[in-house]
Design brief:
Layout: H1 2-8, H2 34-52, E1 57-58, E2 61-62, E3 64-67, E4 72-75, E5 78-80, H3 85-106, H4 109-114, H5 116-132, H6 135-143, H7 148-173, H8 179-187, H9 193-213, H10 215-221, H11 224-227, E6 238-241, H12 243-246, H13 271-274, H14 295-307, E7 314-317, H15 319-324, H16 328-335, H17 338-360, E8 364-370, E9 377-378, E10 384-394, E11 400-407, E12 413-415, E13 420-422, E14 426-436, E15 444-454, E16 461-470
């Protein structure tokens, strides 16, 4: 009997599991609200800075220019050299600490508002919305047959995308090649191979990432999405769906007494899903695909306003606040916890140290290279002479005159033409002969110190050690 039943039982077929999910195109719905306005403001501000900065003029030159050929980096009134790498290191440390701090406080603020991928995706989607229409219109257009109207709209959209992407690549290269020179080269069809490559490469990356890949960059390529979990804790402000208030969800009319029907505030309209640029349902809890743009908050608040319900079904809150129903004042108190205070203190200390270093930064740098071809030689009057090459770097954009002195042995004197004039933002090599009477000095190597000082500003000076050889 058991054997017969076993023979008659249906045989289960193995289930195929796809290792790669084919992408389903997302059609984000337009949304209005406080957070949407904030994103627009950040997009306008960041792009005003990015596209406008190369056109600013400072001291008859481009205000911000990274001249890799000359190894000079101009940032308004400052001129940085490869020797100033420590400042770049400090800037990277500040960026990392800022990311830790903002993530500990309110999650992926950088991703949702200021990340270039988010910013350019917003710009490309706005162009798409203007050309092809809102969400339903774009969906109908893509499902429709290919005809003159569809070809015209798609061609117009991609033409604007490509133009914006190329202008973005052109502006990017304009930070490394003076942008006015770049314009002249383009107009005269004399653009160099490297400028051409980087304009096309950066333009192609912008067009591909913001126009085609979009949320796939955030979901599959960006490493931040993968390790954000270790940077959050139960007191981190994240976009949260209040399941206690919203469930059980269900559709209803505005006049329905939904509480008597046992329903929560969520009307199951899916607006939060439709406005999400990564296509997730925030009602399923925090997910790594969430970039923290808060579009779902604005969308849900619009629905709550229409239904006459209180706002905040989806809101910025913390895991502890939702579970334990903290009041607003207690949420803020928990957000500024020891971890955040430590991040803030370290970040403030590094910022102050960088500002102090920039303020105290001397416009004079000196390197001393001893002439190894002649260790020591005897010159007139029986003096011993050593020859040195001084690299005097004037990081200021004004010319300066410098005097050179030396100490370390009694009777040392410098034989060179003084003062040495060094043009602005240049390095000048100066051959310096140093002589001394060997009487009373033991043969061998002796430590000496070169003192280079500004003839007009004595506080600007630099000391550099070297060796003096006596036969």
């Amino acid at each position: 009997m058991n054997r017969a039943a076993h023979e008659l039982a249906p045989v289960s077929t193995p289930e195929a599991v796809e290792l790669y999910e084919v992408r389903k195109k997302i059609y984000p719905r337009a949304v209005h609200g406080w957070f949407a306005g904030g994103r627009v403001a950040v997009v306008l501000l960041t792009q005003l800075v990015f596209y406008g900065t190369p056109w600013l003029v400072w001291n008859d030159r481009q205000a911000v220019l990274f001249d890799l050929g000359a190894r000079k980096f101009y940032i308004f009134g400052w001129v940085f050299w490869p020797q100033d790498f420590i400042f770049l290191t400090a800037l990277l440390v500040i960026s990392a600490l800022s990311l830790f701090l903002f993530t500990a406080i309110a999650g992926r603020l950088w991703c949702g508002y200021a990340c270039p991928q988010t910013v350019y995706t917003e710009m490309f989607m706005w162009i798409e919305h203007v050309v092809e229409g809102d969400r339903l219109q774009r969906m109908r257009l893509d499902k429709g047959v290919i005809g003159p109207r569809k070809l015209a709209l798609k061609s117009l959209k991609h033409a604007i995308w490509i133009a914006l992407a190329l202008w973005t690549g052109f502006t990017f290269v304009g930070y490394f090649t003076p942008i006015k020179t770049l314009v002249a080269e383009v107009m005269n069809r004399n653009l160099g191979p490297w400028e051409t490559f980087w304009i096309l490469f950066y333009g192609f990356a912008t067009y591909g990432n913001a126009g085609w890949m979009r949320e796939q960059v955030c979901k599959y390529m960006c490493p931040y999405a993968r390790f954000q979990g270790v940077m959050f804790d139960p007191d981190t402000l994240v976009i949260t769906y209040d399941a206690h208030r919203g469930e059980p969800r269900g559709s209803r009319s505005r006049s329905t007494d939904y509480k008597a029907s046992g329903l929560g505030d969520c009307v199951d309209c899916d607006i939060c899903v439709q406005v999400c640029p990564t296509g997730i349902d925030i009602r399923q809890g925090l997910q790594y695909e969430c970039i923290g743009c808060a579009a779902c908050i604005d969308g849900c608040n619009q629905v709550m306003d229409k239904m006459g319900y209180p706002r905040g079904l989806i809101r910025y809150s913390t895991e502890n606040a939702v579970e334990r129903k903290y009041p607003e004042s207690k949420i803020v108190a928990h957000v500024f916890r020891p971890r955040v205070l430590v991040y803030s203190a370290v970040l403030l200390a590094v910022v102050l140290a960088l500002m102090a270093a920039l303020y105290l930064r001397s416009p004079l740098k000196v390197d001393v290279i001893r002439d190894r071809a002649t260790l020591a030689r005897e010159v007139e009057d029986g003096l011993i002479e050593n020859v040195y090459h001084l690299q005097i770097m004037n990081t200021d954009e004004r010319p300066h005159r410098y005097s050179i002195a030396v100490s370390g042995l009694e009777g040392l004197k410098v034989v060179t033409r003084q003062p040495v004039e060094v043009p602005g933002a240049t390095t000048q090599a100066v051959a310096v002969a140093v002589r001394v009477d060997p009487a009373g000095i033991r043969p061998g190597s002796h430590v000496i110190v070169f003192h280079v000082a500004d003839s007009d500003e004595p506080r600007v000076k630099a000391d550099e050690k070297s060796r003096f050889f006596v036969k």
